[in-house]
Amino acid sequence: MKGPLFYSKILLFGEYGIIKDSKGLSIPYNFYNGALKKSENLSEQALKSNESLKRFAEYIAHIDEDIVQFDIERLQHDVNSGMYFDSSIPQGYGVGSSGALVAAIYDKYAFNKITVLENLTREKLLKLKTIFSSMESFFHGKSSGLDPLNSYLSIPILINSKDNIEATGIPAQQSEGKGAVFLIDSGVVGETAPMVSLFMEKMKQEGFRNMLKTQFIKHTDACVEDFLNGDVKSLIKNTKQLSKIVLNNFKPMIPIQFHELWKKGIETNEYFLKLCGSGGGGYILGFTEDIDKAKKSLSDYKLEVVYNF
């Protein structure tokens, strides 16, 4: 048995903001993927995945049947016969490792599932998001359901607000373009749940809430618009502002060894860094108008280019 592949994703814009109704833009990242497989001789890693799947199967058996129904018997039978999730997606890196797993389980075991081939109305997208949110909460405590949605559909998703999402097209990549979106490996694994609770704690402060509304969400929304419209000049300007706002207000979410590097990018204009997912480790997302300059400036780090403009 080998299931279809589900890919990782990158939330380009909207981290934390989408909890409070900012815009967001999420794109599939085909560099990493995962698939359900079965084996009688499980490696140590496969065994770990199998154990986790057992707990996950137990969890989704108790999801409200009005939201989604699964063939739990078949799922449990497959898990007991050595099913595991074979994935190259790094965990705790903000690129949707649990999202791909959730998408794979829904695809294989959900009754009356919404398929990718249907006309994906807003209503269907929101229904999928609700289903995935309740499934992925097993991993994060609270999930928006966006990662699995992106992985399941494998198309860019535009979040206008909590109740308004749509599949979208993004400008074609410019293979000759000097501008780029890239990833830096922080070398530290990040955990979503503690970062989200830290954010919720900060939300109790009026000053932080105010900053979120008047600065963070304002520039996040502008970045999404600029990116979709292919307005590179404005995108770089707004990303710089966003990078500053994050450095000033989300410091605990940035691994300490990156604080100076973050500042250097803003001061030199050679690159601008932002959180990839909830932060705390994993990947850091970077934007630059000149990828060669950025590579030189960040020569101590391995850069993975994810999009050229």
How would you describe this structure to a colleague?
The chain is an alpha+beta fold and 309 residues long. It has two domains: 162 residues, Ribosomal Protein S5, domain 2, CATH 3.30.230; 129 residues, Alpha-Beta Plaits, CATH 3.30.70. Helices cover 44% and strands 19% of the residues. The chain is built from ten helices and nine strands. Strands 1, 2, 3, 4 and 5 form a five-stranded antiparallel β-sheet that branches. It has a four-stranded antiparallel β-sheet with strand order 7-8-6-9. A hairpin with a 7-residue loop joins strand 7 and strand 8. The longest helix is centred in the last third of the chain and has 24 residues. It starts with 5 loop residues before the first strand and ends with a strand. InterPro entries: GHMP_kinase_C_sf, GHMP_kinase_N_dom, HddA/FKP, Ribosomal_Su5_D2-typ_SF, Ribsml_uS5_D2-typ_fold_subgr. One of its GO terms (molecular function) is kinase activity. This is Mevalonate kinase. Keywords: ATP-binding, Kinase, Nucleotide-binding, Transferase.
CATH class of the largest domain: Alpha Beta
Helical content (DSSP H or I, runs of 4+)? 40-55%
Number of domains: 2
Low-pLDDT stretches: none
Q: Gap between N and C termini, in Å?
A: 40 Å
The count of DSSP E runs of length 2 or more, i.e. the number of strands, is 9
CATH topology of the largest domain: Ribosomal Protein S5, domain 2
User: What percent of residues are in strands?
Assistant: 15-25%
Pfam family, one: GHMP_kinases_N
GO molecular function: ATP binding; kinase activity
Domain GHMP kinase N-terminal: 83-147
Keywords: ATP-binding, Kinase, Nucleotide-binding, Transferase
